[in-house]
Amino acid sequence: MFTLNVRGMLTRKVLIPVLALSLVAASVGVLAKRSMVGAAEAIPLPTFDIPAVSEAHKASALPNVIVVATGGTLAGAARNGDKTNFQSYSAGTYKMEDMVAQLPIHKTADVSTYQFGNKGSGGYTMKELYDLSLAVDAALELYDGAVVTTGTDTMEEIAYFLDLTVRSEKPVVVTGAMRPWDVIGTDGPANLYQAIKVAGSNKTKWFGTVLMLNDVIYAAREVTKSNSHRMDTFDAPMFGALGYVDDPAVRIYRAPARAAKAGKTEWASPFDLKKISKDSLPIVEIAYNYQEAGGGAIRGFVEDGAKGIVTAGTGAGGISSKMSAARTAAIRDKGVVFVSTTRTGSGTIYDGGSGNTIGGDNLNAQHARVLLLLSLAFTNDVPTIRNWFTTFGTQDVEISVDANTFLSTSIEEPAVEAPVAEEPVVTEPTPEVSEEPAATETAAPIESEIPALEPVASP
Ligand code: SIN
């Protein structure tokens, strides 16, 4: 009894308060953990000093275009005052505000500027590109279109990064120059003027990001720098240009496949940067294949923490046996995701449908790297990444018309149903066409064959 009483007292006086205290402590712990998780989930987003549209520009009928400047040769200054040397200059010197002020007053757009940075294209980190993309979207909340100026060396990568991440459907036109701003025969002012014209024309709205140099417009996904010095360096080897800019007009002759999804949710890419921190952009590298290539590059990349590796293979994506062994080990030991592309400069690598190696379609290695890097920033799930490569990355054209789409007819009055004949309608032999007005035509769904209207025989 005594023992039992003591136990009961112990339970009431010691254990219950201890239990209660532990419960309180546990709840406080859970709450603290929750608030830590909450804090960790609040993504610190950069802010930008985008200039407001001026009152004068608001009052004007011209579209408002903003130039978001990052530097490059376009903003380059001749070195030692030598205005005849196209190769020795200081890139990223001039400010965009001053360069725009030196252009003739634009005929087709009101122009504002935002200096994001001022350096060579290759000097930007992927984290800075994350900021650039958010700056472009912030600018497009105020402006009708954006021109982004960059160096040409990695312009295709910067343009594709923007293409994959910018949320706005408004025109984004990337441009630059092959010759510095202040040398003889510079292409800088003309490229800048023409790019503003393309953005202001609104003709590439819903296209995603396009690149314009030397009066030629390309899709960011398709374009590549093809020559180290020539002014017509950009090319889209498998697809060609989207259009051209000439004095009378911006002409678009074909649209990228993505434009067919205009206004639909599938138009938007899966990569909404506001949902991730820039610290989650992983290391993704490119390994180049060649005669008897070793496996050291792949092993080194993995050792450096690469989560993804793009192989630029020979022909249809082939890699050497040593590279292949290194790839197998990287997948088995570290779960690295590989994308297979070709070093040939064009051609499609089809996807095998399973495993950790994904076919890069006809993305070149540097484009595929951008897509793989963004994919791995959002998920580690390989089937999801494969799906993004084979849908958003591949952009296969498929035109569909839904059941509610009707051929338009010339009828101006609302369609009236034809009277239902009591007797079977005699159609053979074909009667003479009466002078009476023909029965009202009704619009037919586009998928069905449109029956030829037979005049109804008079009873
Ligand atoms: C660079 O990419 O920044 C230098 C080369 C160029 O702009 O053409």
Describe how the helices and strands are arranged.
Layout: H1 2-41, H2 55-59, E1 64-69, E2 77-78, E3 89-90, H3 96-102, E4 110-115, H4 126-140, E5 145-149, H5 155-165, E6 172-175, H6 188-201, E7 209-213, E8 216-219, E9 224-225, E10 234-235, E11 243-245, E12 250-252, E13 284-288, H7 296-303, E14 308-313, H8 321-334, E15 337-342, E16 357-359, H9 365-378, H10 382-390
Parallel strand pairs: 1-4, 1-5, 5-6, 6-7, 13-14, 14-15, 15-16
Antiparallel strand pairs: 2-3, 7-8, 8-11, 9-10, 11-12
Which structural traits does this protein have?
alpha/beta; 30% helix; binds succinic acid; disordered C terminus; Rossmann fold; eight-stranded mixed sheet; four-stranded parallel sheet; disordered N terminus; 459 residues
Describe this structure in words.
The protein is an alpha/beta fold and 459 residues long. It has 2 domains: 213 residues, Rossmann fold (3-Layer(aba) Sandwich); 109 residues, Rossmann fold, CATH 3.40.50.40. 30% of the residues lie in helices and 14% in strands. It has 10 helices and 16 strands. The strands form 4 sheets. The protein has an 8-stranded mixed beta sheet, with helices on both faces. A 4-stranded parallel beta sheet has the order 13-14-15-16, sandwiched between helices. It has a two-stranded antiparallel sheet with strand order 2-3. A hairpin with an 8-residue loop joins strand 9 and strand 10.
